[in-house]
Amino acid sequence: MRARKPLSRFQLHRDKLLGPAAQIHTNLPADSVTVTHWYKQNVYDPSDNKIGEIMDVLVDRDGKITALIVGVGGFLGMGDKDVAVPFNSVRATIKDNNKYYLVMNSTKDALKSAKGFKYDRNAMTWLPENAPATTGSPAAPPPRR
Question: Cα(54)–Cα(71) distance, rounded to whole angstroms?
Answer without folding.
Answer: 6
